[in-house]
């Protein structure tokens, strides 16, 4: 593993909108340059294609929301289908952040909103209470395997719908740009790297990955993974980067 100092990091996600992001702390504390560039982006599936999946929004009494994207694209499709969202529709949100985001579209206190802890499986007790609902899961074309598994184990009446797709971004302008560390958050991000740069050679570039599926994709592509998150010591990507940079950048 190269033990060279880190001066530049490319994070394959959009730049954080908050001023107090830990990425900016990392940048200031260790005097490293952190750039942000999404390697993948989300594109909405038109209502016509959602209909072709035999989905009629009138048939459902509950919506399962696993991300902010699923919130945005459910309401976008509803509008495209001229579907008036009923006030008694139940919303099952995987986390508090998603439930909070829902306020962009609905008056919170007047709606039936149920919130999980963090992981999808944590919502099982909520689903059990409302097992007679007809659930719709508006999601992307890349659904985590634990989601259908959890819903099927509970024997719920549920329908998955592809409301948006994860697409690889065009990164051709980065052709001659070199970074000490590349940070990835999904298997598709790794695929995007090799789609854009089929000749990519890792050499001294450190690869940071979040999650075991991203790690597997990196290894399958012959990459050496130098920085791994989450771990007990580094539950987030920023903490893993901070730990690594502090180690290799200390005065030799």
UniProtKB/TrEMBL annotation:
Residues 30-238 form the Tetrapyrrole biosynthesis uroporphyrinogen III synthase domain. One of its GO terms (biological process) is uroporphyrinogen III biosynthetic process. GO terms for molecular function: uroporphyrinogen-III synthase activity. Gene3D superfamilies: 3.40.50.10090. Pfam families: HEM4. CDD domains: HemD (cd06578). Coiled coil: none annotated. GO terms for cellular component: cytosol. This is Uroporphyrinogen-III synthase.
């Amino acid at each position: 593993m190269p033990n060279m100092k880190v001066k530049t990091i490319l994070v394959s996600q959009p730049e954080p909108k908050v001023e107090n992001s830990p990425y900016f702390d990392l940048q200031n504390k260790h005097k490293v340059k952190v750039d942000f560039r999404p390697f993948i982006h989300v594109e909405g599936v038109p209502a016509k294609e959602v209909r072709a999946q035999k989905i009629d929004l009138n048939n459902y009494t509950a919506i399962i929301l696993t991300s902010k994207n699923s919130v945005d694209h459910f309401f976008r499709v509803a509008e495209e289908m001229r579907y008036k969202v009923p006030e008694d529709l139940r919303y099952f949100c995987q986390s508090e952040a998603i439930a909070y985001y829902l306020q962009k579209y609905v008056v919170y206190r007047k709606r039936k909103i149920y919130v999980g802890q963090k992981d999808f499986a944590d919502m099982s007790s909520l689903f059990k209470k409302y097992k007679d609902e007809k659930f719709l899961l508006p999601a992307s074309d890349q659904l985590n395997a634990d989601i259908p598994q959890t819903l099927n184990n509970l024997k719920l009446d549920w329908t998955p719908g592809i409301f948006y797709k994860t697409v690889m971004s065009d990164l051709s302008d980065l052709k001659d740009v070199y970074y000490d560390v590349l940070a990835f958050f999904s298997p598709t991000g790794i695929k995007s790297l090799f789609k854009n740069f089929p000749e990519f050679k890792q050499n001294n570039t450190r690869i940071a990955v979040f999650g075991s599926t991203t790690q597997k994709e990196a290894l399958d592509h012959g990459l050496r993974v130098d920085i791994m998150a989450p771990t007990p010591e580094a539950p987030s990507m920023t903490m893993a980067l901070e730990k690594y940079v502090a180690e290799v950048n200390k005065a030799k």
